[in-house]
Write a structure and sequence with these properties.
Two copies of one chain form a homodimer.
Chain A lengths: L6 H19 L2 E2 H8 L3 H13 L3 E5 L13 E5 L5 E8 L2 E7 L5 E8 L7 H18 L7 E8 L2 E3 L4 E4 L10 H9 L3 E5 H10 L10 E6 L3 E7 L2 E2 L31 H4 L1 H9 L14 H12 L3 H25 L3 E5 L6 H14 L11 E3 L5 H15 L1
Parallel strand pairs in A: 4-7, 7-10, 11-14, 14-15
Antiparallel strand pairs in A: 1-3, 2-3, 4-5, 5-6, 8-9, 11-12, 12-13
Organism (chains A, B): Agarivorans albus MKT 106
Protein name (chains A, B): Xylose-responsive transcription regulator
């Protein structure tokens, strides 16, 4: 249980609260910060003075309200976007994407680089990443003194204690000292999170979701990931920090899943599962069976749209499986929103009908899912935005 | 997101923390309270003085350590068990059970009363409960001034906003103003919670579970309930405060569930489901099909023990279904413990083997469930103990 033990902790919590409020709302007067945070004027004055002194926020005088008001000119505060930077690194299969966030959380520079991640052991990966990070920092003229951290967003299973990777399709074996090694090499704080968890955190920064207590983010694509927000915070278990929705079961006797089990949701809905099922019926070009390409997946969409009922049936079955999974999520959490995103939403329209029908058919009578399930357009920045937020939450 | 906004809130949190520490550990010196709570000596002195003044804790001088020590006699603090009382009321089908808790959380008086709850509408239930409460209070000579609250532990679905019951097998229809009406009539604060949630909270008060962040309590019996502890606190969603594990799905095409759906875990594992399946094979005495009696359920155990393979198969299938549900819980939460209790554990030994086998066969390779699943002996006090804790958490 989290405890409130001393005034310093409270002051940092209030400080984070003020910074976060400025991040969400932009330019604000001190009194407006009070409206949002419910902090006392004295607390706000004290903390914002410190933040101004540290260069994290900027004061701007605005034109005196001609009607008079409180008798002195209003001062608006805003974040100094040049004060602090955060480098998010999305680790995918043989591809590394760098996203540089500024103080406000906006991505101000990015680059994608091919890297044979799946062939690299921990030492080699640390070397390759460090080199690429240095290049990115130099190319974008980022001042190291302003860089608050590096954050790895990883497809796969993160080990929270050891701060490394237990399993990921993007790397070779376990890499349990990845964070420590990268920290030593870069001399910067290093953070790590599962990419579906990053998605969930990124969603909490959007005005439409920022006020929700309980939110579920589902990430469709290579696998089927999930991030769970409870009381406004990311749920993380004691060891492997993942909510593995994709490995809950549709059927004990279902198709083989890459996790070794059978009948997991992912074994019907993951890209590899859909491609595998399609190749049982259609004469498809050969592929890396665990990682069909984006183009190959788009070709399956096209097959469906060309009126191939068997292909439509595969997507419809995937939708049914997903719908049962969503019904289970509703039964267990009854979240305010379930947001579905990830590259796999390219086929959302082909799964949607059976998904929603199955969800509604299996909902408890006293639950309602109207307006609960939403699609959120996917772009690769989502993982980076979430990772930048995670870094900010830990360093603000 | 919960916010820390002012010093009064912090003081109450610290106060609760100190009371709770004395509840868990009994008699403690101020310095020992500091070891447990990590609060500063000044904070502890200030808060404990207030608590002594209010009569909530008692100071006891203990013999001066002959070896000297800090130079003055040690004072031990303990809760004054006569300072505050809490009346938990377990509402079951046609039975009401009263459990009176003292300041330490110990049940010091109890009584069970037959009441035709299923025939009573809200007004009638409030009247009948009020009368029974008055009788209980008088019979046990409880001083009203020391009674901090009434707490209803209810089989069924609680509506947290309206503070009433959305659905329960124990009552007639919805009763959405039950709390308000009972509060008006009794002039006491009234609390309400689902009984499986009460079980989960009761478990957090046991030394073996009190330090866990994430814990799942499964309550087997009439239905299959669940309580979820996240970061040491009960998970409650925004509307209906239940984690309905029993209504997650084993199979979309499974047996009819009483919720209206098909193939829910409860439709295989709930008492009514097991009795229904058994009566398809054996010539069983007629029963209330939704609520077979404890004796009738024990008779099914006996059938199994008399070497009736069909009956053993029904329990084994229930175990398999439960095992898949537990595998899903592990995938989603990876909790530190899953504790199974409730009256339905009377058949635990008949379900255990298939349950654990299914769980282990369907576990993710990087999770481990050894020592995670445990049976906890059931008694009717568990719901009361949890409800008393919930009342204490709200009134301390």
């Amino acid at each position: 249980m989290k405890k409130i033990t001393d005034t310093e902790l409270i002051r940092s919590a209030n400080r984070r609260d003020i910074i976060q409020t400025l991040r969400l709302h932009g330019e604000l007067a001190r009194v407006e910060i009070g409206d949002h945070t419910k902090l006392s004027p004295a607390t706000i004055t004290s903390i914002t003075s410190e933040l101004v002194q540290q260069g994290l926020i900027i004061e701007q005088n605005v034109v005196l309200d001609p009607s008079g008001g409180r008798g002195r000119p209003k001062v608006k505060l805003q974040l100094n976007n040049q004060a602090a930077f955060y480098l998010a690194i999305k680790l995918s299969i043989n591809e590394v994407r760098f996203m540089l966030g500024d103080t406000s959380g906006t991505i101000v520079a990015q680059a994608t680089q091919a890297m044979l991640t799946v062939t690299l052991n921990q030492e080699q990966l640390v070397d390759a990443l460090s080199k690429a990070i240095e290049e990115f920092i130099q190319h974008n003229e980022v001042k190291r003194s302003k860089l608050r951290g590096l954050g790895l967003a990883v497809q796969g299973v993160i080990e929270t204690q050891g701060k490394g990777i237990l399993w990921s399709p993007a790397i070779k074996g376990k890499q349990l000292e990845l964070v420590e090694q990268l920290q030593l090499k870069s001399q910067l704080p290093v953070f790590i999170a599962n990419d579906a968890n990053c998605l969930a955190v990124a969603l909490t920064q959007l005005p439409k979701y920022s006020k929700l207590d309980n939110l579920v983010a589902i990430q469709l694509g290579y696998g089927v990931g999930m991030g769970l927000i409870v009381n406004g915070e990311l749920y993380q278990d004691a060891s492997a920090a993942t909510t593995e929705f994709g490995h809950t079961k549709f059927s004990l006797n279902g198709p083989q899943c890459r996790c070794g089990g059978r009948g997991c949701i992912e074994a019907y809905v993951g890209d590899y599962a859909i491609y595998r099922d399609a190749s049982a019926i259609y004469n498809l070009p050969p592929t890396d069976m665990l990682h069909p390409s984006e183009k190959q997946m788009l070709d399956l969409n096209q097959l469906t749209e060309q009126d191939n009922p068997a292909m439509a049936q595969i997507f419809s079955q995937a939708g049914t499986v997903l719908g049962m999974g969503l019904a289970n999520i509703m039964a267990l959490f009854n979240p305010q929103k379930i947001v579905i995103s990830g590259p796999g939403i390219r086929a959302y329209e082909h799964m949607k009908e059976s998904m929603l029908r199955t969800l509604h058919d299996n909902l408890l009578p006293y639950h309602q899912a109207e307006n609960v399930v939403e699609k959120h357009n996917w772009d690769e920045d989502m993982a980076g935005l979430g990772m930048i937020t995670i870094m900010q939450q830990h360093t603000d």
